[in-house]
Amino acid sequence: xANTSIAKTIRSNIVLFGALFANVGIAVAKxxxxxxxxxSSMLSEGFHSLVDSGNQILLxxxxxxxxxxxxxxxxxGYGRELYFWAFVVAILIFALGAGISIYEGWLHIRNPEPxxxxxxxxxxxxxxxxxxxxxxxxxxxxxxxxxxxxPWWTAIKESKDPASFIVLFEDSAALAGLAVxxxxxxxxxxxxxxxxxxxxxxxxxxxxxxxxTLLAREAKGLLIGERADPRVVExxxxxxxxxxGITAVNHVRTIHTAPDxxxxxxxxxxxxxxxxxxxxxxVERIEAQLRxxxxxxxxxxxxxxxxxxxxxxx
Length: 314
What we know:
There is one protein chain. The protein is mainly alpha-helical and 314 residues long. The chain has 2 domains: 2-224, Cation efflux protein transmembrane domain (Alpha-lytic protease prodomain-like, Up-down Bundle); 230-304, 2-Layer Sandwich (Alpha-Beta Plaits), CATH 3.30.70.1350. 69% of the residues lie in helices and 10% in strands. It contains 9 helices and 3 strands, in the order H-H-H-H-H-H-H-H-E-E-H-E. It has a 3-stranded mixed sheet with strand order 1-2-3. Helix 1 runs antiparallel to helix 2 and helix 1 packs antiparallel against helix 4. The two termini are 24 Å apart.
């Protein structure tokens, strides 16, 4: 389990550091280009990259905080703190990235400023596309490796590691924003209407708002608490049901306490002929079997309980 956890952390950090270094450099270049040319869409893109840089720092901080060991106040550890910071990232994208882009675009439409030579904008956009594309490629490669044969959208919804899909969505939004900014700069000069650049800035803001809403929805589900993979739940149920001394499994309930940590609560009907000592031995055997097959199971609670026909929550 330790080796698996370390490998997952390394992969997440590669994605986050790759995105961070790309966004810092891109943000500086975009702000310089916006200052020299007066482009609203370039200014919006600069704020976009700046917010993305801050987001990667927050996710790295969240990962570090989430690795703290359990204590008396938090007996299941601090793993879900990463989910809190993922939610904060979504709010920042919406409030700062989308909000500033839309506001800047609106100002530029109301008070259009003549744009200067767009060459520097095209150069910066080209460099930004190259860097963002590299970061996006890393994020896609790592997420594809993690998802296996699972369809993309299903893998995103089922993922318990927000760092992987947040960077993927951020980089995708960044590439879309660069395309919109490029079109806005070109159209503004081609048709000699600076207001088009403001419209491009608003479009970038709308893209960011849509991405932020999607990320907030996914982060909220993780923060509230999501069950483990249904296949894991069914396998746990099958293993417990097949154990000698178990006559029925009432329910198997799971919750992720971290991306790589699952709490399992099992209610099962024990054979009435078992003695107390035999029951304890059976519980120990079940726990050992589950931990051997599922290293991500961090805590197991087995409750002897009479069989019930009540519907179970998985």
